[in-house]
Amino acid sequence: MEVGIIFKIGAVGILVSVLSLVLKHSGREDQAFLTSLAGLVLVLFWVLPYIYDLFETVKKLFAL
Fold first, then answer.
1. Cβ atoms of residues 23 and 29 within 8 Å
2. SS (H, E, C) 7-21
3. Which InterPro entries does the entry mention (predicted)?
4. What is the spatial distance between Cα 46 and Cα 41, in angstroms, rounded to a whole number?
5. Is the dihedral of CA 14, 18, 19, 23 positive or negative?
6. Residues of the domain holding 27
7. Each residue's pLDDT tens digit in the chain (64 positions)?
């Protein structure tokens, strides 16, 4: 697993939390929720190949 992906996830987390706080304080809770949801989906798309590789490795490990 690359170290760069961890920094990307951290940057997205910080950016989403700041945007969410700004939107909540301006009275736009629905847009704050959508911003958080978009950040989560983005990170899941980045992490999904690593999860797939993990399951494939475990499957090969226990294959007879």
1. yes
2. HHHHHHHHHHHHHHH
3. Spore_III_AC (IPR009570), Spore_III_AC/AD (IPR025664)
4. 9
5. positive
6. 3-62
7. 688 999 999 999 999 999 999 999 999 999 999 999 999 999 999 999 999 999 999 999 998 6
pLDDT at 12: 96
Q: How far apart are CA 60 and CA 7, in angstroms?
A: 30
How many Cβ atoms sit within 10 Å of the Cβ of residue 19? Answer: 16
Count of structural domains within the chain: 1
Q: How far apart are CA 9 and CA 55, in angstroms?
A: 21
Residue 63's pLDDT is 84
